[in-house]
Amino acid sequence: ENVKFIFVSNWMKKITEKDTMTKIDNYEIIPNVINENIFKFEDKQDILRKNILMIRPFNSKKYANDIAINAIVELSKKDIFEDLNITIIGKGKDFEKLVQPLKSYKNINLKNTFLTHSEIYEQHKRNGIILCPTRQDAQGVSMCEAMSSGLIPITSNNTAIPEFVEDEVSGFLTNNYKEIASKIEYLYNNPKRFEEMSKSASFLINEKCSVKKVISKELEIMTSY
Question: What does the pLDDT look like over 113-126, one tens digit per residue?
Answer without folding.
Answer: 999 999 999 999 99
